[in-house]
């Protein structure tokens, strides 16, 4: 396999980079085990394996959720479990390459700049991959029932994945579109007191870096049947509202110029602008109302209901009396409403 050092490699210490090269060489030869006795004891080997896999999402031949370490005296081995026979893997890689090329061609069609291309990639991933809730439940018990949901094959060919599978698919396609992308591992905050292990991406675009978490937006897409962009091209400050990670392990993400909400005039710096955004959207006869509120705004009580009432008031002025569904996220400050037929 033709594997490479990617964006994740650049964020590692010298000892970690040495370990990265050891793992990269082993996975390039599709090894089922490899020696790590020469790797510096300070190195978190699972972090390195995840970094190599994050930079090389075409590696799909083993179960990444059940890597084992075996130590006997001075002998230290990594054992890869759930290894798929080589002829089957080769067939699967061809399937994955064919699917990736189809999707990349679809993304390229009609997109003339980085923003449009990345947004279309984000849309394609949301509409093509469903979140594997059964695998999430299995993993909460400490065992994977569907290891493929953690890699690009499960995501793109089978169409089901959990977060690291979504992230692998994003990197695979982003790389083919000419962008560098890396896997970020950390936690997603479900509430101020509850967090879950999570993975997402940092992508490099014209020398600038942005967070992309297609997993959480894809879950909203399949729940409401409308594209979601709450986690598209965020800077460190924005995503830190409900994500935690070792910030020194990722390049600084300091720009929000590719934000969906800023690009489309859907970002409100005060409450009064919310009504303006809603009116402008209704004039376009859109089936969706999307907006995001600045963190500098003092939120009204029951913000989601407040914004919903604003929509209904303006909708009546436009003669719109359709049913609707909506959600509001206090952490991202994103509001979404869909009119139903």
**Content of β-strand:** 15-25%
- Low-confidence spans: pLDDT under 50, at least 5 residues? none
CATH class of the largest domain: Alpha Beta
H/E series, N to C? HEHEEHHEHHEHEEEHHEHEHEHEE
Q: Briefly note the CATH topology name of the largest domain.
A: C8orf32 fold
Spatial separation of the terminal alpha carbons: 50 Å
In total, the number of domains comes to 3
Total beta-strand segments:
13
Q: What is the share of helical residues?
A: 40-55%
Q: How would you classify the quaternary structure?
A: single chain
Q: From the helix content, strand content and strand pairing, which structural class follows?
A: alpha+beta
Task: Tell me what the structure shows.
With 341 residues, the chain is of the alpha+beta class. The chain has three domains: 9-79, no CATH class; 86-260, C8orf32 fold (Roll); 264-339, 2-Layer Sandwich (Ribosomal Protein S8, Chain: A, domain 1), CATH 3.30.1370. 41% of the residues lie in helices and 20% in strands. A hairpin with a 4-residue loop joins strand 12 and strand 13. Helix 3 (86-108) crosses helix 4, helix 4 packs antiparallel against helix 7 (163-176) and helix 11 (271-283) packs across helix 12 (303-317). The model has no long low-confidence stretch (mean pLDDT 95).
């Amino acid at each position: 396999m033709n594997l490479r050092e990617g964006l994740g490699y650049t964020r590692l210490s010298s000892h970690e980079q040495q370990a990265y090269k050891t793992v990269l060489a082993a996975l390039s030869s599709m090894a089922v085990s490899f020696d790590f006795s020469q790797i510096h004891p300070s190195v978190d080997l699972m972090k390195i394996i995840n970094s190599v896999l994050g930079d090389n999402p075409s590696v799909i031949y083993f179960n990444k959720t059940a890597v084992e370490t075996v130590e006997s005296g001075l002998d230290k081995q990594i054992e890869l479990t759930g290894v798929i026979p080589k002829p089957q893997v080769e067939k699967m890689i061809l399937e994955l390459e064919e699917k990736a090329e189809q999707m990349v061609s679809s993304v390229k069609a009609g997109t003339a700049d980085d923003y449009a291309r990345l947004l279309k990639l984000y849309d394609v991933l949301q509409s093509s991959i469903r979140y594997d809730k059964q695998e999430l439940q299995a993993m909460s018990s400490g065992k994977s029932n569907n290891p493929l949901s953690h890699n690009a094959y499960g995501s793109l060919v089978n169409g089901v994945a959990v977060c690291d599978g979504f992230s692998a698919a994003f990197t695979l396609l982003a790389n083919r579109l000419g962008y560098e992308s890396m896997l970020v591992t950390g936690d997603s905050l479900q509430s101020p007191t509850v967090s879950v292990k999570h993975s997402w991406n940092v992508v490099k675009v014209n020398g600038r870096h942005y967070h992309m978490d297609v997993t959480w937006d894809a879950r909203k897409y399949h729940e409401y049947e409308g594209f979601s962009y709450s986690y598209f091209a965020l800077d460190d400050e924005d995503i830190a509202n409900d994500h935690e990670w070792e910030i020194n392990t990722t390049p600084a993400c300091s720009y929000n110029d590719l934000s969906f909400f800023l690009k489309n005039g859907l970002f409100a710096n005060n409450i009064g602008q919310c009504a303006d955004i809603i009116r402008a959207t209704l004039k376009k006869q859109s089936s969706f109302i999307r907006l995001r509120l600045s963190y500098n705004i003092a939120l009204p009580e029951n913000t989601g209901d407040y914004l919903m009432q604003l929509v209904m008031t303006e909708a009546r002025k436009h003669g719109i009396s359709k049913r609707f569904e909506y959600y509001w996220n206090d952490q991202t400050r994103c509001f979404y409403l869909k009119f139903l037929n």
